[in-house]
Amino acid sequence: MNELKVRRVGNSLGIILPREVVHRLRASEGQRLFLVETPDSSYRLTPYDPAFEEKMAKAEDIISRYGNTLHTLAE
Question: Pick from 20, 30, 34, 65: most CB atoms within 10 A?
Answer without folding.
Answer: 34
